[in-house]
UniProtKB/TrEMBL annotation, chain A:
One GO cellular component term noted in the UniProt record for this chain: nucleus
Function: Non-catalytic component of the 20S core proteasome complex involved in the proteolytic degradation of most intracellular proteins. This complex plays numerous essential roles within the cell by associating with different regulatory particles. Associated with two 19S regulatory particles, forms the 26S proteasome and thus participates in the ATP-dependent degradation of ubiquitinated proteins.
Keyword Nucleus appears in the UniProt entry: yes
UniProt name for this protein: Proteasome subunit beta
GO biological process, one term: proteasomal protein catabolic process
Family per similarity comment: Belongs to the peptidase T1B family.
TrEMBL record, chain B:
Keyword Transcription regulation set for record: no
Protein name: Proteasome subunit alpha type
Protein localization: Cytoplasm; Nucleus
InterPro entries referenced in this protein's UniProt entry, alphabetically: Ntn_hydrolases_N, Proteasome_alpha, Proteasome_alpha-type, Proteasome_asu_N, Proteasome_sua/b
Positions of the Proteasome alpha-type subunits domain: 5-27
The organism's place on the tree of life at top rank: Eukaryota
Keyword Nucleus: yes
SMART domains the UniProt entry points to: Proteasome_A_N
GO terms under cellular component: cytosol; nucleus; proteasome core complex, alpha-subunit complex
SUPFAM superfamilies tied to this protein: N-terminal nucleophile aminohydrolases (Ntn hydrolases) (SSF56235)
Species: Hucho hucho (huchen)
Similarity field: Belongs to the peptidase T1A family.
Assembly, per entry: The 26S proteasome consists of a 20S proteasome core and two 19S regulatory subunits.
Signal sequence, start to end: none
Classification of source organism: Eukaryota, Metazoa, Chordata, Craniata, Vertebrata
Amino acid sequence: MFKLSDKILLLCVGEAGDTVQFAEYIQKNIQLYKMRNGYELSPKAAANFTRKNLADYLRSRTPYHVNLLLAGFDETDGPGLYYMDHLSALAKAPFAAHGYGAYLTLSILDRYYRPDLTRDEAVDLLKKCIEELNKRFILNLPSFSVRLIDKEGIHDLEKLMPVGAK
Amino acid sequence: MAMSYDRAITVFSPDGHLFQVDYAQEAVKKGSTAVGVRGKNVVVLGVEKKIVAKLQEDRTVRKICSLDDNVFMAFAGLTADARIIVNRARVECQSHRLTVEDPATVEYITRYISSIKQRYTQSNGRRPFGISSLIVGFDFDGTPHLYQTDPSGTYHAWKANAIGRSAKTVREFLEKNYKEDMESDTDTIKLAIRALLEVVQSGGKNIELAIMKRDESMKMLAQEEIEEYVTAIETEKQKKT
């Protein structure tokens, strides 16, 4: 997870090396915008900027093979989650997932998500997803780090470590 | 055709001067005054605000620019030239962070700016930048720095300095009144304001001030805060006389 600005986080997964290179490049460019203009990019603008960069590299000799989730809090629009894949598709979504885990968690999210979830309910929904992975996914994923963004900024929540089935 | 860029503009004079650089320094002397003071825990930059026309929005004239979270600068001379330098420096600060994973030191960015300025004194078809700049900030190990660059591309570290119109008067004032290891942040800020008040007409209204404390980002002082310092300074002056 990369901190793009005080209220924007970028989760970057995919090809080893590409993830860090691309994410750090975006991170420093977002900071440059802040230095040049005196204020930070909104999450929507940051997401579109990231998408454009990914799209430009896609048709070059050096494409980045990364899947991204960008989460941010905007003063006027509120919280927002943006899903981006390695083909540079961008979609604003209420919930999202990448990888094999997505096959299992998207249905959980689909079933239990409501637009008016409170903070605790949202964290519980995330826990539900992780429990599902713990139960049905072939790989053992012992620990998940969790971060939350609200109007105060980015907060680290405690690690989620699902225990084995009884 | 590209022929017009073949000839160098900055060439030596018979007595060893680079006239274009000297003329650039004249342009700097015409710019509004900027003063910088390096304290123990705070660095301060103050500039003389030019009197704006009645219909002009004065917040668009920004002479103190932040280059990164730990470095900022002020300049004296041609504002348009400064914009180019500031932009390049900002990009270089981020580029340094990207390659080296650490914020650039004040000296590094000063060296970078100076080398750009020097390059323009030795390139075909280009003229030197008409600005001197004061670059202040904290390195990531916490040491404060103040550097001055000039159109020739040289840079020096200073404890306190001034550039622009009446720089000499301000520098003499600073030499008389600078105290080593000023522990108090207020003293450092007051020194910068007092130095500017020597040359600025009509007091606090024409001063713009920015400070940076260790591990904090640059803070531009609001007009009211500057006025508070100015009143405190006036009362001290009254008490002395």
